[in-house]
Amino acid sequence: MNFRTALLAFSLATAATACGEDAPAPEKKVEAKPEKKAEAKPEKKADAEGVIRLEASDMMKFNADRIEVEGTKVKLELKHTGKMDKKAMGHNFVLLKPGTDPAVWSGKAIAAAATDYVPAGDAEMIAATKLIGGGESDTIEFEVPGPGEYPFLCSFPGHVAMMKGVLVVK
Description:
- The chain has three helices and eight strands.
- With 170 residues, it is α/β, with parallel strands linked by helices.
- The protein has a domain at 52-169: Cupredoxins -  blue copper proteins (Immunoglobulin-like, Sandwich).
């Protein structure tokens, strides 16, 4: 390399360093965005009249995914707060025995269209409301075997993914 080439290389290196090309880039502060937590649904308890008032909407949601009761006798009112007909957005409340998998059980319910998606005489089911549409309600009274956690769900096809919870008997 001759003197001229060396001088040109040195000049280019000096200019690049002066412009900051070899200098490390300043660190960028990245602030972690807070995780969005799913809205916690309030737990339900019986009102002054001793009735659990559960609501279901056109958005495929119950207004509670945990219900607590004292004692084994339960009175539950399910109200459909939406406007859609039960053929399109029907809801019910089905209470299952402890240990029953709601997703697996709902697979059986799909085959029971003739009985509004509630298999007649199913051994894993304790109680169920009728299937209701927008603006309708149904009230049932039932008895559970004893203290424990009982899964509940809406058995309308496809609803179990978003419409399920647990009834806690103390």
